[in-house]
Amino acid sequence: MRDTTEMIDPVTGEIIDEQQLAEQLLRQAKEQGVDLLGPDGLLNGLTKRVLETALDAEMTEHLGRDKHQPAEGGNIRNGTRSKRVLTEVGPVEIDVPRDRDGSFDPKIVRKRQRRLTGVDEIVLSLTARGLTTGEVAAHFDDVYGASVSKDTISRITDKVIEEMTDWQNRPLDRVYPVVFIDALVVKVRDGQVRNKPFYIAVGVTVNGERDILGIWAGDGGEGAKFWLGVMTEIKNRGAEDVCIVVCDGLKGLPESINTAWPLATVQTCIIHLIRNTFRFASRHYWEEMGKDLRPVYTAPTEAAAAERFREFDAKWGQQYPAITKLWQNAWAEFVPFLDWDVEIRRVICSTNAIESLNAPLPPCGPGTRALPERRRGAEVPLPRDPLA
User: Fold this and answer.
1) From CA 143, how far away is CA 155, in angstroms rounded?
2) Among 376, 380, 345, which residue's Cα sits nearest to residue 270?
3) Helix (H, G, I), strand (E, B), or coil: what is residue 300?
4) pLDDT of residue 360
5) Closest listed residue to residue 181, CA positions, set 222, 131, 152, 146
6) End-to-end Cα spacing for the chain
7) Which residue has the higher pLDDT, 79 or 371?
8) CA–CA separation, 161 and 365 (whole Å)
9) Any signal peptide, and if so, which residues (predicted)?
10) Of 160, 81, 56, residue with least CA distance to 117
């Protein structure tokens, strides 16, 4: 049994089989030698008909009467004017209805609008994939037979940049119980291909909702001055107090956090700490080492965690002294979450909230080619929740 989709003709009220309608249109196009695509193609003609029908319906609503109803004074129709608009199927010539007093302001194709919104979305999508303005213009010429200037493409992308700037500077909540900070590393081609980190801060509101506080581009050598600027920006935008900041071992970040919010607790990401531990060890020992580490980060108190780590160090420290040094350096930022119960520990023990956010976000900008880079350590066989 064939699957068909039906719709109601708004004029006659009859049921229309969309599949049969499509087949009929294609059959007529073949009989008349009309291509599906191109300036004189079937889709171009259908787009013209749909747009003109929608504009005529807007005019009817504007005037309050149908096209052929007699006018009883007041505003009336006043012919049409030709207009060329760029659509997803290429340039389309349409006839836009006019009224006598010039008060008609259509919504489907606005006055002075030369592109439908779908075209802007195509430009932004191509730009986000790394095409330059010249390459985007060439794409429209090759695929749609339409001329789109580089200046037009730049204006489209500039609108997004303005919106991004407004979003980046928007006011923040006064208090965030938890803030997560982590980096997404991507390969960026801007003259040459290189790795570039983009730092993302995500706050948990007092209502338990996730709020992206901002995104900052770095160069890989960020220090205290960079992080103090980021923390000051967040604070100046209204975040007067932060209780806990979960982050990885980024140089100068803990000091900058406590400069901005003296009472904030800096908590290292346990997942990152464990992954970094495994990078110093042979893959052959990962499973056994993971079992020996678990009593450390699930200990009920700091004293118990220290005792469990001494046992771990006695077994592995001589073979892997770098692991001992890693944990000793991170200990001050490791232990704060041991003061909380298990439910809160599961929230603050990692920056997975950002990693899950990073997955669909390959940040890049106009004139920049970026591809997500697989994060080192992603192959480490650890549960996303180390306390599960």
Assistant:
1) 21
2) 345
3) coil
4) 46
5) 222
6) 49
7) 79
8) 9
9) none
10) 160
Q: Say if residues 190 and 255 touch (Cβ distance below 8 Å).
A: no
Name beta bridge partners: 82.
95
Residue 353: closest CA among 224, 206, 229, 184: 184
Q: What is the 8-class DSSP label of residue 206? A: T
Cα–Cα dist 171/186, whole Å: 28
Dihedral sign of CA atoms 126, 129, 132, 134 in order: negative
Confidence band, pLDDT 50/70/90 cuts, at residue 368: very low
Residue 197 dihedral angles phi and psi, to the nearest 5°: -85, 140
Under 8 Å between Cβ of 173 and 359: no
Beta-bridge partners for 193: 189
Q: Where are the beta strands (DSSP E) in the chain?
A: 6-8, 15-17, 77-87, 90-99, 175-189, 193-204, 210-217, 241-247, 265-268, 369-372
For the whole model, what pTM was predicted?
0.58
DSSP state of 102: S
Q: Is 82 helix (H, G, I), strand (E, B) or coil?
A: strand
Q: For every residue of 8-62, which 3-state class applies, written as one string?
A: ECCCCCCEEEHHHHHHHHHHHHHHCCCCCCCCCCHHHHHHHHHHHHHHHHHHHHH
Residue 196: which residues within 8 A CB-CB, separation 6 or more? 185, 186, 187, 188, 217, 218, 219, 220, 370
And the tokens for 263? 């009472």
Residue 372: CB atoms within 10 Å: 16
Q: Say if residue 9 is exposed, middle or buried (CB neighbours under 10 Å; 0-12, 13-18, 19+).
A: exposed
**Residue 31 burial by CB count (10 A; 0-12/13-18/19+): exposed, middle or buried?**
exposed
Strand pairing report for 193-204 and 265-268: unpaired
Is residue 257 within 8 Å of 245, Cβ to Cβ? yes
Strand-pair partners of 175: 241
Number of H helices, E strands in the chain: 13, 10
Residue 18, pLDDT > 60, answer no
Above 80 in pLDDT, residue 277? yes
Inter-axis angle of helices 253-260 and 224-236, to 10 degrees? 30
Coil, helix or strand for 315? Answer: helix
